[in-house]
Amino acid sequence: DTDGMFCCPVCYEKFASHIFQCKSGHAVCRECMMKLNRCPQCAAAYLGTRNYVLEEIMFELDRLNCSPEQAVKAVKDAATTADFCRNMTNMIDQIGQQIEAQASSSRTSQSPTSPSHVENTVCRMQYCRQTMNLKDLERHLIDKHHPNVRRLSATNYLSKSKFSFDLLCTNNRFALLTEFGIFFLIVRVTSSQIIQGRLTVTAWIQGACTSVEASLFYSLLHIYVKHTKATYHDIVHHSRSTVAQIEDADQCLMFSVNAEDYDTLKVSGYVCLNRCKEDRPRRSLATVVERLRDYDDYSSD
């Protein structure tokens, strides 16, 4: 029964992006989850947990222009049809393995021995450290921090969600709402106590996610101040990381520049899913700083 796996059990629509699951593992679409407090199948609570495996399966099906019924039939027929197996090897590898992974994940999450926990997160906006259920974070941001909330678009679920802001050389924070999660862009500017007119700029991307999930997301930052460009790319930080932990470990963009707080600071970059996370460990001491000859050299990748 493909409907049971690939369609929302509440509205019966085929799953797209943003698939959530109750703490027992039953999937539901985002629109229905926002209207429910309890899972209609087992009465378990919704804690804001995303079903990334099923989201990846739905993306691959859409990319291959393949319906769930065709994918399941292909996996079954491949065992006995040699010609079909040769022609459809790539699809079988991609779809079959992920279907098995989803089934295994579902069995594990429904096991009575699986630990249950509340998916809490922290709002990282300026002057706000409110702790809340993950599924309530987006509404909190829109209600309480709307001027600094940006919804980023992308060409597809796995592409880069780009941003660009022209700011002053002061502390700034933005909430970035993407197809694959909520992230905070944090820019900190501090004045030197020794050299007048010398500013230190630090910046990073922090996700509304756990330390385990953080490696699933990748970010790139460019900051331009007074003909100086600084670049840094890294996996995102998790929601419980503190400013002191990040800056003391040099796990962020960091550079100094001669400027005043009324000068312009431009920040641009992107957030994306980290499909090569095995090759992208946490970076350190990796900010690249260069001088620009002209303001026209300011650009966003």
TrEMBL record:
UniProt keyword DNA-binding present: no
Presence of the UniProt keyword tRNA processing in the record: no
Domain RING-type residues, every copy: 8-42
Pfam families, per the entry: Sina_RING
Gene Ontology MF: a single term: ubiquitin protein ligase activity
Domain of life of the native organism: Eukaryota
SMART domains listed in its UniProt record: RING (SM00184)
UniProt KW keywords: Metal-binding, Zinc, Zinc-finger
Name of this protein: Putative e3 ubiquitin-protein ligase
